[in-house]
Design a protein that fits this description.
Oligomer: single chain
Shape: globular
Mean pLDDT: 96
CATH class: Alpha Beta
Strand order of the largest sheet: 2-3-4-1-15-18-17-16
Strand content: 25-35%
Number of strands: 18
Number of domains: 1
CATH superfamily: 2,3-Dihydroxybiphenyl 1,2-Dioxygenase, domain 1
Largest sheet: 8 strands, mixed
Length: 286
Amino acid sequence: MENKFFERPTVYVGEVSINVVNLENSLDFYQNIMGFAILDRADGKVRLTANGKTPLLTLEQPENVKPKEERTTGLFHFAILLPTRADLSAFLKHILETEHRYGLGASDHYVSEALYLSDPDGNGIEVYRDRLSSEWNWDGDKVEMATVQLDAEGLLAESNEPWSGLPSRTVMGHIHLHVSDLDSTERFYVDGLAFDIVTRYPGALFASTGGYHHHIGLNVWNGVGANPPAENSVGLNWFTLVYPNEETRSEAVNRLVQSGVTVTQESDFYVAKDPSSNVIRMVLPK
């Protein structure tokens, strides 16, 4: 894992907040299967961490919570980036030993190797490791990515170390969202937030800053014109974009406001919604 994609001056995803049906059941999964540790908890919310200091994932059980709604905008998956291939190897062995039954999948994306699963409520999760950026292939400003078969045997042979939870250098690598329309979405993230489109797939865009393969994925695979889910349904509450400094964040806020987007300030962060009502908290590094 190359830290340059998750530190100044890059703008990156820092934390994701999701709704769950039963907080205690979800905690069992996220601690014992995923390997998170509890950072703190209060008022039906729990913040989870890998290093004991930095929150990566917040779980919330809202009042009158509704199960995951299908064919809506919102979370496709959030992606946990492990520091090394050996860490991903240990995680895969751990998952196979637990007989986890939440739709384990695997892919090689050229830039990364990835495992896919879902939590007990159907929230999508990717766990991956990056190849070195020097091994990525670029055609101009577009990076080559694909979905091909993962070398699972090679991955399993990478390490004999037992899984002992998420390594301390684990980060939130990216988030992938369902959206209702790609054109308005591209304008929001590119013209408003100054992300670069680095890959285009049928029905999907992948965006980043600082030359990463993607910090944000955006797709219309749930249908063009899909509606947002109810606020109390399982799925995404919000995610953070971490800005390097106040100047860069203010510039982004001003661009959004000038384009007609409503931006509000709450304590030490700004809140905006993309055209599909996905909620973004614009924060500074802690």
